[in-house]
Amino acid sequence: MVRITEELVRRRAEHNNCEIFSLEEISLHQHEIEKLEYLDKWCRDLKILYLQNNLIPKIENVGKLKKLEYLNVALNNIERIENLEGCEELKKLDLTANFIGELSSIEALKYNIHLKELFLVGNPCTEFEGYRQFVVATLHQLKCLDSKEIERSERIQALQNYPEVKEKIREQEQAYLLKRAREKEEAQRRMQERKDKKQKQMESKLGFDSSDSLQNKENYQAEGDREQETWRTVEDDEENRRFWEEPTPYTPESRLETHRYIEEKRRAKDNIRESKKREKPLQTLVTAEGKVLNVNVPKLHFSLKDDEENNQIILDLAVYRHLDTSLLDVDVQPTYIRVLVKGKPFQLVLPEEVKPDSSSAKRSQTTGHLVVSMPKAKEIILAKQKVSTSIKDSDCNTLQKNARRSVQVEKLEVDPSKYSFPDVTKIIQKKEQIGQGPIRLQPEKITETKKSYVDFENNEDVPPLI
């Protein structure tokens, strides 16, 4: 039996940040609910309530929803309209495809003065003679019945014939109630027969097992589980065919029985599935003799490389790109590596012994692959690479020369023609002494200076510089 719980209501109130005290609209359809409860205490501000396609037999525990404007309880097992007097703001009521046969129970809706729309399509009461006239005459506030607008002339005519129509409805109601009583008795008898039949089947199976228990056990073990499963499926198919082909009246009891039969079959399938999971043998990773096996249960592509330069072994495991890293468990041992991918083991025997403590595991940011680097336990010293004998003598000479140049200290050479830096060594010119005595002025050099200075003008009035 499915009931309305606080967890269910909060889960359906995601649009309201899972707050139920201020909830104004909620949809609880197709949850196989068998009782309407708790909503009038938890959600006092509800305005719209969807409860269609459940197994609710009675309208109850909604009288305190003063702000409720729309109630949808279509496709349920409701037989009577009741307990809606407290819904003062109710404007629309949907009772499509229920089992309402007491049409006189609509008189309880007289107190819902704001009710404008009512849906009773698919109920037994709609087959009564004078059904629409009775509803129109009884509920003066109603504007629309079964998606058809009520006209003024229709209401006037219904009120004129109301006493006669009411009497006819009472008679048809009584006949329907007697029919329902017989249907209930028939449903109870049929359920009791099925229970007795199941009990006999169980007793026959138990008796069969007790009489020939040893022989049966040996036979069953010889036949195997596969034949048992086929026998069960054939028996279930035959039972399903009998159940669905048997003609039964459409009543609340038959609808509830169908639901429970489907639920029972679903639970049986779930139990079989769980038993298969439990009976499934564990994957053997190491034999009884201690031999480690290669296992790839997740069926992932992988590559194992021997990196001789870095003296390590690299495993590239193509795990799923968007798989969360928390679902990976890496275990490196000296002779093998084991990776659990979502609980499924991947195990590989290594060609050489490795160092587990120095190993490292990383995820590729582009492909999402798991890359595990495992240094080898035996360290190998690699010799320097020798120059091959195929090199010509000239190439050897050039290599030797380049080596010598690299050994010698290189000096920086500066070309004076490209740079105009002053020559510091020639700032002070050497004095030329011609014989003895004072220094003579050399006219030749003066002429050179004249030539060197283009803008020089010789003014005789200016005394010479000594």
Your description of this structure?
This protein starts with 5 loop residues before the first helix and ends in a 14-residue tail after the last helix. Helix content is 35%, strand content 13%. The protein has a seven-stranded mixed beta sheet with strand order 1-2-3-4-5-6-7, with helices on one face. Helix 3 packs across helix 5. The longest helix is centred in the middle third of the chain and has 50 residues, at 162-211. It has 466 residues and is α/β, with parallel strands linked by helices.
Question: How would you sum up this structure in a few lines?
Answer:
The protein has ten helices and 15 strands. With 466 residues, it is α/β, with parallel strands linked by helices. α3 links the parallel β5 and β6.
